[in-house]
Design a protein that fits this description.
heterodimer; A: 109 residues; mainly alpha; Histone, subunit A; 3 helices; B: 486 residues; alpha/beta; Amidase signature (AS) enzymes; eleven-stranded mixed sheet
Chain lengths: 109, 486
Amino acid sequence: MQKRDGSGEIVSLSEKELEHLKDLARIRLDRDLREKFRFQLDAVIGFVAELKKVDISKHKDTAEMQRGSSRLRADEPEDSLSRKTVLEEAPGNNGRFFSVPPVIDNENE
Amino acid sequence: MSALTDYSISELQRLYKKREIGPVEVVKAYLQEIDLKDPLVRAFLEVFHESAVMRAGELEEMDPEGMPLYGVPVALKDNISVKDRLLTCGSALLSQYTSPYDATVVHKLIEAGAVIVGKTNLDEFAMGSSTENSAFQVTRNPWDEECTPGGSSGGSAAAVASGMVPVALGSDTGGSIRQPAAFCGITGMKGTYGRVSRYGLVAFASSLDQIGPLTRDINDCAVVMEVLSGHDPKDSTTLESPAPGLVQGIEEGVEGLKVAVPAGIAGWQVEQPIIEFQEEAAAVLQREGATVEAAGLPGMEMSIACYYILATAEASSNLARYDGVRYGNRIEGATLREMYENTRGKGFGEEVKRRILLGTYVLSSGYYDAYYARALKVKSMICESYRKLFKKYDLIVMPTTPSTAFKIGEKSDDPVSMYHSDIFTAWVNIAGLPAVSIPAGISAEGLPIGIQIIASAGEEAKMLRAAGTLERSFSFRRRYLPGADS
């Protein structure tokens, strides 16, 4: 992957990079969409790269903790959805389990 | 428009208690409005004709006392779960998904006596600023059918603006309640992050998402917000502090409040009529006894980039669950991986795919530090600078959007330009602050203009004092609606 920064350099998302991203995200992209996305994502990445201009060197906090909040509830079991209810929404199920295509004989996995 | 659909929530309550009207006739009147207007506006994905009338009938047997939303029809953005109802999120992937449980806000609405009348259109998974990203239909702005209603809660905003419901709920991740409220000439509010439970709201960017009301005026907004607010054991990010009383403050005025207005606002390419209403808002507040000063708003420039990194990173993770296994539609493949890729490739629309890919990019090895980790630091800097600013001021008053409603199709192929329309709203979510947009007036083209009031965390009541003062002065509904409605 080529380096990019937001300092005005012309950036371009390579076909290989887009291929890698769509693999990571498990999204099939039709051929006609690939060119369009390469162009659009490139523009968006160039836009969010503006953030590199911000001086963060003096700032230590990486996450903003919410103030006066975030309490976990007591760990007490409550009624949950029944297996039947949950499986009813599953596109593939045998009445007891979710069913999926073969997992093991898959060269890509 | 029949008179029954003109009443505010408090007028409805008064008439219900005196038994002068009943929930069945009111609900039927609203359903009639929907049947009449929605074929053009296309705000609703589903209308609950039968169950709404049935519920209204049940309410007639009950005492309205202690039910602040007794007999009030409410529409819900279709990313909020109602048990045994479709929950599509505007996505082809979930076109047949039925929710097995109620969101906390739905519980609260029902307990308060509300009647759920249907589900409204949205940008797929709430990703968008125009409601054009719905897999099902394009919603039109009731003020101009060639314009978008804004988004992503565009269906909810259009439904309220066209008088099809008095109240709708939306969700706001970067402005998705306030921007459509501004575009449609209504009131829209998001509370402090954690004020309203997100349990049962389909997650987009969990650290930014908040549910809130879209209503015709600030009083209705306050009544609904009081019902929705409060700690929920099912959402550990909800605030523990008790929800503030909001209705009372609306009449209190702004005497003694310190208000900041943004310095150099013209530099943000704001349309001239919007600047004029912003100036009028400042003048009104000053006249009513507030101190108004121009102040630089820190981080506005970087907030949009920061927002689109954080929101897409969270979205790419949150939307990993749509894999064709547990729910939603599946597109088969020879292998598990092929099934995942087919399902997500066909099931998600273009904008959702773009955002997942961007989120994947900013989180991926080699880019994480440069984008995501940096954006978290910038978020923390933005939060800190606003904590400082709010030590000096009680409120910030500024336009909700830099432009009025844009045309359908105008920005749909230009994501960067679309993202820019969130410039005045997204930073508020990054900072976790409460904000409300109220209608101020209309442009020469006849499109509504919204003014936004922002308070420090937990100060919703103060915010509504200013909103009430401005609403009385702008008198938007009295000035612009009789003509628009006829």
